[in-house]
Design a protein that fits this description.
Layout lengths: L9 E8 L3 H9 L7 E7 L6 E5 L2 E5 L1 H4 L2 E8 L2
Antiparallel strand pairs: 1-2, 1-5, 2-3, 3-4
Length: 78
């Protein structure tokens, strides 16, 4: 499952960031590290971008980027 598959209120544990090296480093620098809890919070009016809560910070990612982050789903927590 990817981060893009999480619906608002659902959460998961990041397993892997699988993208090109420059973007991968940027996502890792933002705190999207394997083993980190992440929760989908809000979607834009047209479904893109999506806001995610990670390490106490809300980040907005395009769905095309979120599809590169593999997560283990934990379910709904809101």
């Amino acid at each position: 499952m990817t981060l893009a598959d999480l619906l608002p209120g659902e959460s998961g544990i990041i397993q892997e960031v699988d993208t090109e090296p420059l973007l991968q480093q940027r996502l890792l620098d933002l705190g999207l590290l394997p083993g980190t809890h992440i929760q989908a919070r809000f979607r834009g009016r047209r479904g893109d971008p999506v806001a995610y809560m990670v390490r106490g910070t809300v980040l907005a990612l395009r769905l095309s980027t979120a599809k590169d982050v593999i997560v283990h789903p934990l379910g709904r927590s809101l």
